[in-house]
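Worked example 3 (structure in, sequence out).
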């Protein structure tokens, strides 16, 4: 086969065969499925409140309630397994704009007031620290 015949054969060949496309598609679907399953965070059970770097309270996500945090600095609402901030006294209100959180590790942070609200799986100090509404 001459050089020009090789070039002509290469130009006329298909870059992928049907089976190649099927295998590639299956691999992409498998990778996406593995990522979805492995990176999904579990739903938390408690809300931890940290003021000035110290944990002050825990609240159960299973009990709806309205809680005044930090001597009236903000209002924490727990509703239908989610927590969110309402009526914050900070100037920017980013903590209110964070929205509802329910997955372990999610946080609502109010920097001006140094308050961190975090979803946790377990209470560090034991059930005696749980505040109920």
């Amino acid at each position: 086969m001459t050089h020009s015949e090789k070039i002509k054969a290469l130009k006329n060949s298909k870059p992928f065969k049907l089976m190649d496309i099927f295998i590639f598609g299956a691999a992409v679907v498998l990778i996406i499925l593995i990522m979805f399953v492995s990176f999904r965070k579990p739903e938390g059970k408690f809300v931890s409140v940290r003021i000035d770097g110290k944990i002050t309270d825990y609240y159960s996500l299973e009990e709806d309630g309205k809680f005044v945090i930090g001597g009236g600095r903000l209002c924490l609402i727990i509703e239908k397994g989610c927590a969110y901030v309402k009526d914050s006294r900070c100037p920017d209100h980013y903590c209110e704009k964070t929205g509802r959180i329910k997955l372990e590790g999610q946080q609502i942070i109010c920097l001006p007031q140094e308050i961190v609200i975090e979803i946790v799986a377990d209470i560090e100090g034991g059930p005696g620290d749980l505040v109920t509404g």
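Notes: The chain has a mean pLDDT of 86. Residues 21 and 88 are 54 Å apart (CA to CA).
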